[in-house]
């Protein structure tokens, strides 16, 4: 038997069915890493088989083929064939085909009544050609991605379903809470920008210097030891150097890149989960589709890309037994440059024109770090919402080299009123045994937005004002239901 679908997964399936019933045939589903995109794919595949129809589930990496088949099996979907080279499960007669895009684009595509494109932000021109063929015009194509923000993706998909946000899944307990520590900014002077992100060659030279602020290995030994860790580096040379520095410091560290054989990668994963490997240094290959039990992320790879940033952080947000939170050691300045993963939201697909409009808008000010307590303050907030500190004009603040400070997600820096109200809602929910979603919805009811990033705050006994506010809402709700209070 498969897993019981979570509320957001059931809601997504209903929205997909409704979109198809409304005549939509190009549907994109946005759901954070760890939200269960493959489970949704398995549910669609199961319904397709039950209806006597066929489906194709495509993946962009060879390593994801067997992983997807295993997940389908766990969900009770066994009648699966594989389209990948000479795979042992090759069987075109089976109604569900799991296909690597690399192999599929070189073969005749089998008939299908549903097509699912996993990790759809990794776009191939083959997909565009396939979707444009007349014989596939009426076949629903369903994209699945945590970050469907690739430029021009809106030209191929006409419907975006936002299944849930990272903050909502953290609040519901489906994703892990996280803490971020960050050093002072690395020196990226002279690093050029290419295709919207840092020039890799320039970046490697800048990040591989021995004099970098906040040495990666020492920081991890101080704060992250005992936590299974993924370290994201700039390129192969940088990643190998980091691995060797960890080994020299007595840390069991492995290295993975795009050329690491599947068998070797699987062996490293087994040792990682057995606790025999403490840190895995990688470059460009552990950002999508891995389900490892990661409790610490090292960001040694600066980026301007929200997609890459969210995918890296997402590797550490899956929940696990005994895992209280994910520790993020940001040696890249990414959080101060981009924001926090709970802040990043897109409500539409990019059709190529929207990005131009966004780039023409003035860029919002970034949060500032409180020099006293290290909280990040919202823009144009002179007093720190956490400790009340107000910097004096022309006051020079000097940070020691290598010193790390904890960052709070942007919503964690909201004015004290919002933080207190959220804590009081949590106390009420805990004592009345309300589900976690009640807190988020009541907060939004009062302030007009979700409590992004506040989930780290502990419950607080509510004030009379808060209790009265909650009571008034319950009375109003009861009246709408025709009940008496």
From TrEMBL:
This is DEAD/DEAH box helicase. The keyword Phosphoprotein does not apply. It comes from the Bacteria. Gene3D superfamilies: P-loop containing nucleotide triphosphate hydrolases. Keywords: ATP-binding, Helicase, Hydrolase, Nucleotide-binding. GO terms for molecular function: helicase activity. Coiled coil: none annotated. SUPFAM superfamilies: P-loop containing nucleoside triphosphate hydrolases. Residues 18-166 form the Helicase ATP-binding domain.
């Amino acid at each position: 038997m498969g897993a019981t679908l979570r509320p957001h997964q059931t809601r997504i399936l209903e929205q997909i069915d409704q979109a198809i019933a409304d005549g939509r045939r190009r549907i994109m589903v946005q759901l954070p890493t760890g939200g269960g995109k493959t489970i949704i794919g398995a549910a669609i595949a199961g319904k397709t088989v039950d209806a006597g129809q066929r489906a194709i589930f495509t993946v962009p990496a060879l390593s994801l083929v067997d992983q997807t088949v295993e997940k389908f099996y766990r969900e009770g979907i066994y009648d699966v064939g594989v389209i990948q080279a000479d795979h042992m499960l090759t069987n075109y007669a089976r109604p569900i085909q799991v296909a690597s895009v690399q192999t599929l684009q070189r073969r005749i595509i089998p008939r299908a009544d549903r097509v699912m494109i996993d990790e759809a932000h990794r776009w191939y021109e083959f997909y565009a050609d396939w979707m444009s063929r007349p014989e596939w015009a009426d076949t629903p194509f369903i994209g699945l991605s945590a970050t469907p923000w690739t430029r021009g993706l809106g030209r191929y998909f006409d419907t975006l379903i936002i299944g849930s946000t990272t903050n909502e899944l953290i609040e519901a307990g489906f994703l892990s809470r996280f803490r971020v520590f960050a050093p002072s900014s690395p020196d990226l002077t002279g690093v050029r920008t290419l295709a919207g992100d840092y020039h890799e060659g320039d970046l490697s030279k800048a990040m591989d210097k021995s004099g970098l602020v906040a040495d990666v290995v020492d920081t991890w030994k101080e704060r992250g030891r005992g936590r299974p860790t993924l370290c994201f580096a700039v390129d192969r040379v940088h990643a190998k150097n980091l691995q060797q520095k960890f080994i020299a410091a007595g840390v069991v560290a492995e290295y993975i890149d795009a050329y690491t054989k599947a068998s070797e990668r699987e062996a490293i994963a087994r040792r990682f989960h057995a606790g025999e490997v403490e840190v895995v240094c990688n470059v460009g290959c552990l950002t999508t589709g891995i389900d490892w039990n990661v409790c610490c992320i090292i960001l040694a790879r600066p980026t301007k890309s929200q997609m890459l940033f969210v995918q890296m952080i997402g590797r550490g947000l899956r929940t696990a037994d005994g895992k209280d939170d994910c520790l993020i050691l940001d040696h890249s300045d990414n959080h101060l440059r981009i924001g926090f993963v709970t802040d990043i939201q897109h409500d539409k697909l990019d059709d190529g024109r929207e990005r131009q409009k966004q780039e023409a808008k003035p860029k919002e000010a970034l949060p500032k770090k409180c020099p006293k307590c290290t909280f990040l303050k919202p823009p144009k907030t002179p007093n720190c919402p956490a400790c009340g500190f107000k910097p004096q004009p022309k006051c020079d603040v000097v940070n020691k080299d290598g010193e790390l400070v904890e960052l709070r997600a942007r919503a964690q820096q909201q004015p004290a009123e919002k933080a207190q109200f959220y804590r009081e809602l949590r106390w009420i929910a805990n004592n009345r045994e309300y589900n976690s979603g009640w807190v988020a919805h009541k907060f939004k009811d009062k302030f007009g937005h979700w409590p992004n990033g506040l989930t780290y705050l502990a419950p607080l006994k509510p004030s009379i004002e808060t209790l009265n506010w909650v009571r008034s809402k319950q009375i109003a709700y009861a009246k709408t239901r025709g009940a008496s209070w």
